[in-house]
Structure formats: C-alpha cells, structure tokens
Task: structure prediction
Amino acid sequence: MRYGMVIDLKRCISCYACQMACKTEKGTPPGVLYAWAFRVEQGEYPNTRQVYLPMLCNHCDEPSCVDVCPTGATHKREEDGIVEIDAEECVGCRACMTACPYHARYYLDQIRGYYPGQGFTPYEKAMYPEHAKGTVEKCDFCRHRLERGEEPACVANCPAVARIFGDLDDPESEPSRLIKRDAGYQLLPEQGNDPSVYYLPAERPAKGSSSRDSR
Amino acid sequence: MNPPTSALYADLEAVYRPQRVWAEGRAVALVIAHFLSGVGAGGWLIGLVVDMRLVLSMALAAVVLSGVVHLAFLGHPERAWKMMLRPRSSWISRGLWSIMIFVPTAALYLAGAYGAWSTDSAFSIVMLVLSLVGMAGIFLYKGFVYAASRAVPLWHSPLLPISYIAVGVRGGAALALIALAFVSGPSGNPVQTWWLAATGAAVFLFLLELAMGRSDSTVAESLGVLFRGGIGWLFYVVVALLGVIVPAALVIASYPASIGAAGLVVAGILSLAGDLAYKYCMNTAGTYVPIIQAKKR
Result:
C-alpha cells in the first residue's frame, strides 16, 4: 500500500480550509504550517493569473529527507509509504530540511503561543505536548485519523472536494484513476523523489463525472 | 531561533526560497563547526607534510573544538551519539564516525610524536594510518553533506566537496603560517608554498563551480545573494580582499625577503577569517529550487 493524495486545482477555491483544518487537528504552534498554499502570479500583464498551489509533505516514495537523516528518525513506513519522524530519535540537525524541496518541514526551537504575554490557551496546553522542542516535524497524513478509518483532516474538511486520498498502489482507487484520466502530475519530478502527492491541472477539458460529485 | 512568522510567510510566497536553517540563528555554530573541522583536517595533513608538531596539536584541538561546537547547533545534543547509526546513507553519520576515529588515534600518534613512545613503533604507525583515515573522512563529509541536498542547487555540485577539501588544506596551511611565529619551520618555504597552492586550487574550483552552475536559474539567484545581496560586503571584503588578496600578498612577499613572524601570523589569521566568512556566505546563499516557475509577486 502506498498512501497518496490528489489535489484537483480546478476544484480548489483557495479557501485555506485545509490549512485551518490541519492547524486545528494538529495544534501546531505559530510559524508551523504542515499544510499551506503557495500563491504566485503567472504570466505577464495583462495576461496574468494568480495560482494557488496547496502544499503539504509529499510523502515521497524516494524521500531525500530519509537518506540524509543521520539517526533514522525520519523514515518511510513500509506498510503504507507514510514518511514520518520519530521525535524521540530526532537530534535536530535539520539536514532533512535542506534536503526537502517542498518546504514541508519545520524546526521547533521554541514553542510559542498565539497570544504572547498571556500564556497558553487551554487548547494550546492540550495540544503542545504533542510537539517536541528541538526537533523537526511535518505532516504525517494524519496517521492517527487513518488508524481510526478517517481521512486526513485537510481532505475531510475541503469544502470543494479538491483533495482525494487513497492508495496509489491500487490502480482502481480514485486517486489512481484521476491521475490517469486527468494527467495528474507531481511537483519537481526532476528531483527524483517520486512524490505521493499529485496535482490535477487547473485548466483541462471536462471529461465525464466522477464519484466525487456525489460526495 | 526560528525565523519570525512574517519571514516564514514571505518565504512561502517567494519563488526562490532562501535556505535559512543552516544559515541563521544557532546555525552559525554549524558554520563554525564545519570550518573548524576543515581546518583541523587540513592542519593534520600539513603538519605531517612539513613535520611540525605544533601544527598537529593545533589541528587536533580544532577538530575536538568542532565536535563541541557541532553539539551547540543540535536541538538535542544529548542524542548526538545516535548520529552514528546511519553511515550507509548519511554523510553526517560518516562525518561523526570520521571525527570519532580521528580524535583518539591522532591524540595517540601525537603522544608518540612528543616522546611518549617511538613514532616508528608499529602502534604509532597504526595510529597514524587510522588518523589519516579519519582525516580523509573529515575532509570529505562536509562537502558531501551539502552536495547531498538536491533541493539547493548551489550546493548540489560535484565540485563542492573538492572545493571544500581545498579550503580545508588552505586552512591547515594557515594554521602552519601562524605556528611559524612560535616554532622554527622546515627549511625553504614549504608552508607558504602549500598555502599558495591550496588557495589557488580553492579559488579556481570556486570559479569553476560558478561557471558550471550559472546557467541554472536557482544558482543564478544564489549568486545574486552572494554578490549583490546583504552578504555581498562580507564576500568582497572579508572573503576576497582580507581572506585571499592581502594574505597572498604577504605570503608572496615572504619568499624573497622575510616579512617577520608577525606578517605570517597576520596572513594566517586573515586567511582563516576569510575561510570562515566563505562558509557562512555559501550557507546563506543557498536557495531552494523553485516549486513552480512563476513571476515573483
């Protein structure tokens, strides 16, 4: 099994619900964004457009972050392909951060609250023990939700159903079908990481309906 | 410290994202540690070649100090031993192994050199060989730690490890220049010759790396940071002028006529300062490959 995600840029409405859902689910401190949106302008005036590219850890099949980790803290799970970090093993050398081309990793040299000078909120007090100071952390495809049979928070909370999660090793899974049907592409394939996050082009002809439409 | 949140958001919207984790805040400790380990490995090589025990001692001290400074960079220094667990894939792991091999064997060889036992003994020879193995590993690992980062094209160059070896040898020769003020050196000017040769090699490799990489848009962005960005003055003044041109003039002047011990010490210190600044500049100029090519907002 290889968990992966398809992000349909035609459906994405740039609402940042994925980012907020992730923040809420994982309780990350300020300055840590497991899910974020890359916002850029393309083209030259007057033919310009703004592009939103939702980003997260790509859970690569050939992850460069795993190779450079000196302790094995960053590793890929054989059973489902999720790239995760063992906070107990991480020494905080940040080599993985220089190796990752997707800006998916964050180093926690301190854990700040959202309201400086007012202490931590009850929610922060509840969630911050999950974050280890002096280590690197990132998206883990909401492993705890997967274990409960739920989808990652960013997928479950996307109002446009632009995120589709499933097994890329299964050719009949919805992500696999969409990648094949709509020419899904990976970011920076030349880096050789073989990401498990695919994007469907924002501009493409309509081709029939998908089971997503009935969700 | 983590970059301010505003800097993070700026980075997330930048087409060319700056590499900060090995350049800012406590990462200066990493730059210093890599500088010291290079100087130490270079000093061990030069000390053996020109047969100066003081240089060997300074080299060993530099490597030991580099290990301590490395720890200051880590988020969890108490777990540093775990960095030895992945030598098959991680150059950091290989580097730590190299330092662990080098320090005790170099110390034992040095003890023989100071008269504890004969340097001709089998034990000393074994220690010497092992120290050379450790030295080679230290020379190699730094460059490959950076070159392994495909996401940062300025570093991901086959020339970078060779270039950092040349810089390390140059640093070792600079140590020897300083040591000449305190102990008599070998006849002729072999230390000066080594320094000039290593400096020439380092400058040549740097220029070659730039020539090879400048067609890459991300490397071009990095070069913009290096030559025209906020660290431009550091590169031109400390790296190029004080680190190369001034000491080269002093060392060349020492061939026909003595410039005195003070002149060589100044040349050595400036050379080392230039190398440290060079490492910092190279780390700071590191830029990630753009996720998508687009017009910058």
Observations:
- The first helix of chain A runs from residue 17 to 26.
